[in-house]
Specification:
Layout (H helix, E strand, L loop, with lengths): L29 H10 L1 H21 L4 E9 L21 H11 L2 H11 L15 H6 L11 H16 E5 L5 E8 L2 H58 L4 E2 L2 E2 H36 L7 H5 L1 H24 L4 H55 L1 H34 L7 E5 L12 H26 L6 H8 L3 E6 L3 H10 L1 H4 L21 H4 L4 H19 L4 E6 L6 H13 L5 E5 L6 H6 L7 H6 L4 H4 L1 E3 L4 E4 L7 H8 L2 H13 L2 E5 L8 H6 L4 E7 L5 H10 L7 E9 L1 H4 L25
Parallel strand pairs: 7-14, 8-12, 8-13, 9-11, 9-12, 13-14
Antiparallel strand pairs: 1-3, 1-6, 2-3, 4-5, 10-11
Helix pairs in contact: 2-13, 4-6, 4-7, 7-12, 8-11, 10-11, 18-19
Amino acid sequence: MLQRNFDQAYPATDPVPTSVEGWKTPTVDLREMARILRRRWRAVVAPAAVLGAIAIAYILSATTLYTATSTVLVDPRRATMIETNQTTPTNIGTDDATIESQALLIQSVATVQRVVDRLKLTQDDEFIPKPGLLDPIKSLFRSSSGSGGLSPEEIARANAVDMLQQRMKVTRQGTTFLVDIAVSSESPGKAATIANAVASAYFDEQVRAKTDANKIAAKWLGGQIDDLKNRVVVSEKAVADYRAVNNLSVAQGVTVNDQQITDLNNKLIAARVQTAEARAKYDQVQQLAKSGADAGGLNAAVSSDMVSKLRAQYADIAKNDADLTSKYGPRHPLVANVRAQLKDTQKLIDEELRRIVESTKHDYDVAQSREASLQDSFDKLQGVSTTSGQALVRLHELQREAEANRTLYESYLARSKETTAQESLELPDSRIVSMANVPLFPSAPKSKLILGLAVLLGLGAGTVLAFLIDYLDGKIKTLEQAETITGVPALAALPTIGARELATRARRGRAELANYDPRTMRLLPPSLQPPLMRYAVEEPGTFFAEAIRAVRLSIQRARKVAPVKVVLVTSGLESEGKTTFAGNLALSIATLGIKTLLVDADLRNPGMTRALCPNADAGLFQVATGEVPLEHALLFDRSSGLSILPSPAVRDVDVITELMFSEQMIETLERLKSHYELIIIDSPPLIPLVDGRALAELADRILLATAWDRTPREVVQHTMELLVPVHDRILGTVLTQVDLSKIRFYDYYRSSAYLKPYGVPVNTGAAR
């Protein structure tokens, strides 16, 4: 049920809050977020629908483009056709900046201009700028000399270059040397042709740049070579002139004097060696002569062939002598003959040894003489060399300078020849990995992606908008909110009744319309009364009737605690359903057998009187002023036993205001209290009129009607501030015009809006 039940009357003794600080925004959890999205689904869907429609309009109006991609490999280490002696750095081309620079070169103006000229894109309608809607506005901000003095052909070329750059995208594949050249066009074949042309133009631009660089280098090297050539000639002539002046002839790279000194030095060393050897032999002979030893021990004797042969002969004869002596004896003639041969042989040996000893002395004298001669010649050449030493120092300096000039000249000359040869043989640093193929499917606009992003973005924006709207929504939505703001119990929530159901009930009274005589019947019969005014008693099993009964129960409990005769039904503003609520509450109480009076106290806008007794000619005002007796003004509903005191419209507004504050009104209510057990007063709204505030001073209990999802929190707060003097008389608040299909998204657990009435089918409809 849409009501709050209390076991006892609410002790409304605390002062009502005077500001909105009593209201605290509840913490939003996941369930609350889901409920917010459910109840604000229109705010969520609307941005998505708008953006989706915009996306569809863009897709339908956008130009269909096809994209073709060619891939090139950027490799500056690629070898040229002419090998040079220069060493290429191993890290060239591996720097990311190098690859990115090449990617920018591909889409540079120089490269794109080659493609435009080669394919004659200035004559292609696709690359001719078309007038736009904003062109007149843009022209206002351009200077009169916007063309800069360019010819129409140059302007067309610049426009084509700019449009092609916009249609072209050059990207590097990760961290590799591969670069993709993607070109978009309205024609698939044209896209592939342009993509391949861009790659070709990029290669041509690389070759042109290298060729231009080589030409500049060759020109510079030519000038340097001429200068170096003159310097080499001058330095070599200086060497030759200095050598001629100082008699520094050169043979095999050294001067003649130095060469002679070197030869004499070598010969002198050899002579000294020979002298030493001869002296050693001579000293050995002298020692043998002094000691009387055999001269046969000399090295010369030992190595002499003649001495060796004589000694061999001597050995043979000695052997023969020994054999003959042993055979014939020492006196035999053969023995004597053999011994004579031994003596002769020994004599020859001694003579040979004596000759060898004499030759060592001769060799020693010759060696000494040769050494002395060479030493004398060497000393003379040394003197000459000392004289020309200073000249040689200067000569070597001139020679080094000439050699340096010659080396530099030869290096520049070789480099110049290599550069000249490479001018016509340069290769690009890149190559095509894959040619662009004709695309089969369009690449733009990406319909699914654009539409999907638009819908997702719209849903995201709608979600934010829904949360924002819900956060900024200051209208009363739940019973708990009403309690928190007012500080008094929220008794029940009256659901709105569908217009279709009300129309069906209204058609039932058409049959009795012919029997109605406004001259004799001041109170409309029940069938002709607005269906909503009697809904609680005619449809007792509905939520509406159950909520009325909950309020009725609260009044009954209040009557048990203290005497309650006058109950004021009011609201902060008009059209908050207080009249309908008051009429149904009075009927419901009257059905219990309680003698009840329903008073229409809204003299300015008597809505209840218009609904129940539009032909009434007397009412509260006439009774209070004494113009009409009370019995003549009262109307009686026989079906329920409810008495009604209407209020025909009064034109004098000042009189109405004074009446509410007069003793006449107090006396009238006292008279009514004596005749009825309970008086229900339909009061004017509190905020725009002071009449209701005056009536609140005369009431025993006050019921405040608040329109669900219509009345702002600030209005309710202000209404409670107006009722501060009679705050202790406020029985509670009632939410009216509640949409049962929506309230469950606000108060799912605290209200029973999601339940069906016990045993009775619910009749709901659109909000009224």
